[in-house]
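Task 17 of the worksheet. Students: predict the tertiary structure of the chain below and write it out as structure tokens. Keep your answer in the requested format; marks are given for formatting as well as content.
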Amino acid sequence: MLKQKIHIIGAGPAGMIASIRLARAGYNAVVYEQHNNVGFRFNGDFQGIENWSTLEDAQIFLKQIGVEPNFTFVPHSQGSFFDSGSNRFDITSKRPLFYLIERGENLWSFDQGLKRQALAAGVQFKWNHKVEHIQSRMVISGTGPKAADVIAKGIVFRTSHPDGYFGFLDDRIAPKGYAYLLINDGRATFATCLFEDFKHERLYYERAFDRMKNLINIDIQQPKEFGGFGNFFLPSITTGKDNILYVGENAGFQDALWGFGIRHALTSGYLAAESIITGQPYEKLVQEQILPFLETALANRWLYARLGNKGYRFILKYLGKRDVIEVLRKHHQYTISKKISYLVARYWYRSRLIDKQCLHLNCHCVWCRCGKEADARQNRQIKNEKLAVGGVS
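Model answer:
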């Protein structure tokens, strides 16, 4: 006989992990998703699960929270970065710097892999179900980011270029951020990540794309544009009225430094489930296992934002002579200096864009809320036109 029913709102990574853990523990886990599948926000683009913030390898981390890599999961230990002067710096690490994953609705995506594991565990899904209100003793909410503190604009495409990863640091193509190229098995993702000046994302993307094409001899076939955004805020919101536990970016759990927040999302979902199963306070678990990383990342973001192009070049030269994993892990430790930097950074940091809107007139952005709504309206119009044509014929 199943234990009590737990309602999970949102089928993102955090919600999926919570549902898997609960179902395996004998709970009646029900996931409500407003779309008809997982991974709806994504377009088959490649992302990375970072492997530098802890001694624990990401593979071990996934195993500990009960996740099997039944999805694209490719380690990367060697890559190249370019500075604002197009100087190349080869980066190496003794263990994988990150694990490449795919997001979206394709068969071997991270999202579909978690869905398969959830179904195998007995999780129930309520598709096309936007929850306005649930009267329940316990709810986990993982509905995604509330606003945009970082945006990504790019393309996914086919290519014959060998597998690899490339990074580009230059405030003229990615202000206070970076651009990246990830290639795996004949497919690639290129994007620029902006941490400010979102209104000019098209200009930065075009500059970044031209830079990438000048530096990398790569063929681009069947390109498709995509966009996305991430949200970070402190203090995080972990619990709400009526026993709601917030997970993932809905709680503000994101990597403020570079946007590598998937581990935070997975951890928060797992901790929310553990709180229900064991009775431990969710807020206390978050303070112990997530909050130090969030504060350290914000301190690092404050420092990174002050580097500029000369600073990026210095950092790349420094990393090019060392094991990058060891350097990054050192700067992700919750030390006294990081705590002091965090106290400064939290007063400096403000969400760059509230409510996910770019404020453009006649918006065609691929990342913001009004752009997505415009795309949805256009898709509905096309669908209606096709139906009308079909009716006439």
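Marker's comment: The longest strand covers residues 221-230. Confidence is low (pLDDT under 50) at residues 355-361, 364-369, 371-393.
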